């Protein structure tokens, strides 16, 4: 019975998620729109010898992928979960065969699928429209993306845990959004930041992920130090989410 109830919750959440075109646009479409706008700038399509012949647009494909994780786990998921708690939905669920954890799992799966869709779209448009090479190290690239998704999902759960309601979640998320957009390299790719700033940013989950994705794109296995940073953040954030999350 619990399994069938969890499936019912997932289906209901999927329907609600599909009725939010704004969230779908910002998670799935917006990163590729940004990538396309940047790709239309002629200077961004010129090879730079200082970067080993890479073009600026080559650096922005991984950034587009990271941007999708930010949109999903910072701007979208926390307000939804905080809103459910504020309206007493989680408390009422506790009196039914459905456990509130099923709702949290459904939200994570749905946002994870949206992030994967965004990644496929960005990689496809980058390749077809601007000739950006697909990652040479597919396994390392996929592993990095998966770990990054885990870390941002955990961060989203933390934000949902500490926010009393949807408005607070949105306010906190806005601050986190700005910081994470910077560390992901949306405004300035991490690879071209000044050395000191780059070393600092590499200790953040998205900064380390950006470097790891770039390494995998070039054919090498992502640096274990960069992967370790992402894994460590995932563990810390997941632990914080479990400790602080309240269903009521």
TrEMBL record:
Residue span(s) of domain ABC transmembrane type-2: 22-248
Alphabetical keyword list: Antibiotic resistance, Cell membrane, Membrane, Transmembrane, Transmembrane helix, Transport
One Gene Ontology biological process: response to antibiotic
Subcellular location: Cell membrane; Membrane
Any one GO cellular component localisation term in the record: ATP-binding cassette (ABC) transporter complex
Membrane topology: Multi-pass membrane protein
Record flagged with keyword RNA-binding: no
Transmembrane spans: 24-45, 57-81, 101-126, 138-162, 168-188, 224-245
GO molecular function, one term: ABC-type transporter activity
InterPro entries hit by this protein: ABC-2_transporter, ABC2_TM, ABC2_TM_bact-type, ABC_2_transport
Hydrolase is among the record's keywords: no
One Pfam family, short name: ABC2_membrane
Family statement: Belongs to the ABC-2 integral membrane protein family.
Designated name of the protein: Transport permease protein
